[in-house]
């Protein structure tokens, strides 16, 4: 079996690695009108590796780390991203998930026990893309935002992990007000609707959306209106976190 | 270190076990007015093991199995329960989660690599208690339903896993109509309210509950009323699964 001409150089602390469990991070980056995901291009020179060059940022956990700490460290080591909230969402454990031949070549080059079965615990996060500039390191040659409509063939079962993360994100958006972190403090209902449309990947009826969101009773209408727009200026709103918390915890909230 | 006088006898196929990853099952059993959880008493004769005799049903996965298959097999091997829907909800990976001294004694007796770190993937399920009669086998001496208000000190981090499962269950109850499987096909709103009260561990305002649940628009009122009760007979309802699915998938449902 062919090996890489040179080993990727910055695989720090491999002696600490637990060869049986990894973490993978699905970082969604929102920008108006598009939802992207953070991918890495792996440090592969050999032309045999043209397929599966891309993956989610992920690696083996260290034996002395809990899973959350591993996820934060690995994301930082590969992409320089830090200070974001990573939510564990699923463990993937197909016995053959790292055993395709293209993946085996990569693993032979970078791991001590390339044939071991690896269970991966997957995390996701949703951030405002502009707030995070990835910068590749370790065995990542590039770290970049890729539109979820243009995802290439990824290593291992990473396409499946990404699909699963996207489903989790959509479900969460339906039951918790996560979209607000992606907007400026004061926003229009139109802006809010576009957040929902972008993440859900669908078009929403304007009147229906407004009625439902205002019924929730945790949007605070302001006296101010939008500035500097050519069209009719829309009213601005703020998200009322306190009101939301009290609605959620106070009375029995039968939300489905 | 002391070892057990006799090895538990029916630890089948230990040569297939992956010593690094386990699954644990939190099976909630509902009966009117009480929520219980399925525990096992482990096969321990030595009086030194009086603490931590109890645990959730769980064990190491086999190397050729995916996680869902492992969970089903292990639950069946220890408690004879099968044909229930197990939902994965979280992976627990504290590096020291199996390393307390009481746990170490047990592991020394039953495992080849007792000191290995073990990550566990936890599953839960909610069933009608009357439909499932557990029967202990393998290293379980007993398998029994225990009220969630009387949970003893459990092995490893199983108390924490149980708490986490209960939170997941409550969250799910708030966003999906899972309570209906626990009731007869035709039920009164009072019965339904008691399902919610039992699982959420709280008392709900009757009028408020009725208004909210009827607003959801997937309860079908029947012409029939309750039979054989001494008090005023209440109207019976059916859950309208079809209506629920169409409400959920059809239009944008902004549920939080």
Can you characterise this structure?
The structure is a homodimer of 256-residue chains. Chain A has 256 residues and is α+β, with helices and mostly antiparallel strands. Chain A folds into two domains: 14-173, Nucleoside Triphosphate Pyrophosphohydrolase (Alpha-Beta Complex); 176-249, Winged helix-like DNA-binding domain superfamily/Winged helix DNA-binding domain (Arc Repressor Mutant, subunit A, Orthogonal Bundle). Chain A is 28% helix and 26% strand. Chain A is built from six helices and nine strands; from the N terminus they run ββββαβαββαααββα. Chain A has helices at residues 67-79, 101-110, 158-175, 189-200, 206-215, 241-249, and strands spanning 17-31, 34-42, 54-55, 58-62, 87-92, 119-128, 140-147, 219-225, 235-239. In chain A, strands 1, 2, 3, 4, 5, 6 and 7 form a seven-stranded mixed sheet that branches. In chain A, strands 8-9 form a two-stranded antiparallel ribbon. The longest helix of chain A is centred in the middle third of the chain and has 18 residues, at 158-175. Chain A binds chain B through residues 18, 20-21, 61, 63-67, 70, 88, 90-95, 117, 119, 121, 174-177, 196, 200, 202, 204-205, 208-209, 212-213, 216, 251-256, and chain B through 18, 20-21, 61, 63-67, 70, 88, 90-95, 117, 119, 121, 174-177, 196, 200, 202, 204-205, 208-209, 212-213, 216, 251-256.
């Amino acid at each position: 079996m062919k090996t890489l001409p040179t080993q990727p150089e910055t695989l720090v602390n491999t002696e600490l690695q637990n060869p049986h469990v990894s973490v993978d991070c699905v970082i969604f980056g929102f920008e108006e009108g598009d939802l992207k995901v953070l991918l890495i291009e792996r440090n592969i020179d050999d032309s045999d590796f043209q397929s599966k060059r891309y993956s989610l940022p992920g690696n083996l956990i260290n034996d002395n780390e809990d899973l959350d700490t591993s996820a934060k460290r690995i994301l930082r080591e590969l992409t320089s991203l830090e200070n974001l909230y990573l939510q564990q969402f699923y463990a993937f454990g197909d016995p053959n998930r790292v055993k395709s031949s293209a993946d085996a070549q990569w693993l032979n080059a970078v791991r001590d026990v390339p044939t071991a079965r690896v269970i991966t615990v997957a995390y996701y996060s949703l951030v405002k893309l502009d707030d995070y500039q990835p910068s590749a390191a370790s065995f990542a040659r590039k770290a970049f935002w890729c539109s979820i409509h243009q995802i290439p063939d990824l290593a291992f079962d990473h396409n499946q992990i990404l699909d699963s993360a996207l489903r989790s994100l959509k479900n969460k958006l339906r039951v918790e007000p996560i979209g607000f972190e992606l907007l400026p403090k004061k926003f229009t209902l139109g802006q809010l609707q576009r957040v929902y449309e972008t993440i859900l990947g669908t078009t929403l009826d304007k009147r229906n959306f407004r009625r439902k969101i205002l019924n929730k009773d945790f949007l605070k209408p302001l006296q101010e209106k939008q500035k500097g727009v050519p069209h009719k200026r829309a009213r601005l709103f703020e998200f009322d976190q306190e009101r939301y918390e009290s609605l959620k915890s106070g009375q029995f909230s039968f939300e489905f």
